[in-house]
Amino acid sequence: MRKHILLLAALCLVPLVSLAQTGAAPAESRLKKIQDSRSIALAYRQDAAPFSYEGSDKQPAGYMVELCRTAAGAIGRQIGVPDLQIKWVAVSTQTRFTTVANGQADMECGASTVTLGRMKEVGFSSLTFLDGTGLLVRSATGGYSLSALAGKKIGVIAGTSNERALDRALKALVVTATVVPVKTREEGLAQLESGAIDAFASDRVLLMGLAAASKNPAGLALMVDALSYEPYAIVLPRGDWALQQAVNAALSQIFQSPALPELYARWFAAMGKPSPMLEIMYGLGGLPE
Fold first, then answer.
1. pTM score above 0.85
2. Domain count of the chain?
3. Which of 97, 112, 157, 289 is the most exposed place for a label (fewest CB within 10 A)?
């Protein structure tokens, strides 16, 4: 447990120290544009329930969407624009980082894992959630472990941290399996249900949401063990320390407020109480003034 706590502390600091490694902040922070336009552009995913998706009313919904909406309100108060307007920008797995990097959105509120490689293109806020790469299989498969999938086909979205985690796990356990690249989670689920693949790898909470929305939830099962830890954060423009500070200050207020347990319960009640690691993450994210 102590090893996990130290790892989590290091992960929480990564987004904060990254700016020192990427050079000086840009000449003008996006905060000025946000203040002048009295609006903020928030990117959201349409396929990442329960973190970020489109509800039945075609409006953005989810844990990260609600977290960003609340943070935007706090940022508005910080810059003297209490009626700050939100402009929602839909993005995909493939476009989420470039949309922030090229200025089409000021923040991305999806299910994005903080990695050193991604820091070459974008920045990140304090951590907002902890998940792990898991495997969704058909209940009839049995075993519910990576070793049980030797010689079988495992789907994963190409270019994601899940793909890298799956590759590392297969090598570590000396398991030979065929990795099948897919473009979306919906495609992965469809192939799993049809029998074209034997398992689908993605973030565990996202897999739970995917299974719940499937044709036959009872016919699917989630592997118990996580293949990796996936620390989530809000995606920000690279090197924009002023916006990062404003976002982190907003998150700190949220993480210290009595509204946090309600926010968690609203989206993750089926998971029970937050894990000890997640509790620690929330505590570390509640930075003092």
1. no
2. 2
3. 289
Q: List the structure tokens of 33.
A: 């544009």
Encoded amino acid at 275, one letter: S
Among 179, 201, 228, residue at a domain's last position:
228
Residues 121 and 164 in one domain: no
Burial of 145 (C-beta count, 10 Å sphere; 0-12/13-18/19+): middle
Q: Which distant-in-sequence residues (6+ apart) come within 8 Å of 242 by Cβ?
A: 25, 29, 31
Task: Say which residues have a Cβ less than 8 Å from residue 28's Cβ, sequence separation at least 6.
Answer: none
38-47, 89-98, 221-230, 254-263, range with the lowest pLDDT: 221-230
208 and 188 part of one domain:
yes
Confidence label for 273 from pLDDT (cuts 50, 70 and 90) = confident
Gap between the Cα atoms of 25 and 29, Å rounded: 8
The answer to whether 62 and 49 have CB atoms below 8 angstroms apart is yes
Q: What is the mean pLDDT of the chain?
A: 89
**181: three-class secondary structure by DSSP:** strand
Query: Mind listing the pLDDT tens digit for each residue in 279-289?
Result: 999 999 998 87
Greater confidence, 141 or 37?
37
Residue 200 CA from chain centroid, whole number: 18
Query: Domain span at residue 181?
Result: 133-228
- Assess whether 200 and 89 both reside in one domain: no
Query: Which residues are CB-neighbours of 159 under 8 A, at least 6 positions away?
Result: 93, 94
Tell me: do 95 and 155 sit in the same domain. no
The CATH number of the domain holding residue 138 is 3.40.190.10
Q: What is the pLDDT of residue 244?
A: 96
Q: Within this chain, do residues 222 and 160 fall inside the same structural domain, yes or no?
A: yes
Q: Minimal CA–CA distance to 65: which of 78, 81, 48, 84? A: 48
